[in-house]
Design the sequence.
């Protein structure tokens, strides 16, 4: 969107800014240092339910979490029973989704033993543990999963295997709530009432997402230009594997409410205790 000038008629300056984790994003939003942001789907719901009138504009990411293992026999999440899994998420949506999935599998009798979760500081810590042989399996968000596999291949002294993605396991476990709206674009509270601009942003993002999915190589080169620490090849793989499909939040409301309702049973704090009001679903 920055490269194409899609918002030039509506803003004097459009700037890309990278945040490192959801806690940092919360601070940036609270200080109103950013107008729009990509965000895990629970964060804007949490903020709205706490009285901050943010708005979710769309959902574009429906499958971004992958299981990577040193063991070729670990292909699914059920194969992890009794084994250790590196988890670089704390109090974030991926942790909520993972716990919800593993709990449901145990209750259904699909897993005889609990998965031993080993927390890491962040994804880079999990990658280091895997590459040094100190970790057996990890749950990673893209493009981190593809980056780990790419680095292992270049290192040449170990084999790592891509297992099931969480969306696939979720669809098997919760067939009546099969779609998993994981991330999208939100408008900060000082922008939420600007419906016309929100519509322009949502439409421009949808066009950009379609272009990116159809031109994975060029999109990966663009990502590398803005985030040089991400090599082109694993980013291209991540784009090709990720279900990138932009829908307005209003269109995705049934899937969002199904997810919010499910995770609220065990993690009500992750969405602020209840479903967001109708005006939350933008643009």
Sequence:
């Amino acid at each position: 969107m920055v490269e194409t000038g899609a918002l030039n008629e509506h803003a004097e300056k459009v700037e890309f800014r990278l945040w490192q984790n959801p806690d940092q994003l919360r601070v940036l939003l609270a200080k109103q240092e950013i107008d729009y942001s990509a965000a895990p789907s629970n964060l804007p719901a949490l903020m709205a339910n706490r009285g901050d009138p943010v708005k979710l504009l769309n959902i574009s990411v429906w499958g971004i979490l992958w299981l990577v293992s040193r063991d070729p026999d670990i292909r699914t999440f059920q194969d992890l029973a009794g084994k250790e899994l590196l988890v670089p998420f704390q109090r974030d949506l991926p942790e909520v989704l993972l716990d919800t999935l593993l709990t449901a599998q145990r209750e259904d009798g699909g897993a005889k033993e609990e998965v031993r979760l080993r927390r890491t500081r962040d994804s880079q810590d999990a990658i280091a543990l895997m590459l040094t042989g100190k970790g057996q399996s990890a749950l990673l968000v893209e493009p981190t999963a593809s980056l780990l596999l790419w680095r292992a291949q270049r290192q040449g002294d170990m084999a790592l295997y891509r297992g099931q993605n969480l969306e696939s396991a979720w669809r098997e476990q919760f067939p009546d709530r099969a779609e998993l709206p994981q991330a999208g674009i939100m408008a900060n509270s000082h922008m939420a009432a600007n419906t016309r601009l929100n519509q322009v942003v949502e439409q421009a993002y949808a066009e950009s997402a379609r272009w990116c999915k159809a031109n994975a190589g060029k999109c990966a080169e663009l990502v590398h230009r803005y985030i040089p620490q991400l090599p082109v090849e694993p980013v291209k793989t991540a784009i090709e594997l990720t279900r990138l499909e932009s829908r307005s939040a209003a269109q995705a409301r049934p899937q969002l409410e199904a997810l919010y309702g499910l995770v609220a049973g065990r993690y009500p704090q992750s969405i602020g205790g209840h479903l967001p009001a109708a005006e939350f679903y933008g643009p």
In short: Residues 195-214 form the longest helix (20 residues). The chain has a mean pLDDT of 93. The chain has two domains: 22-62+179-280, 65-177.
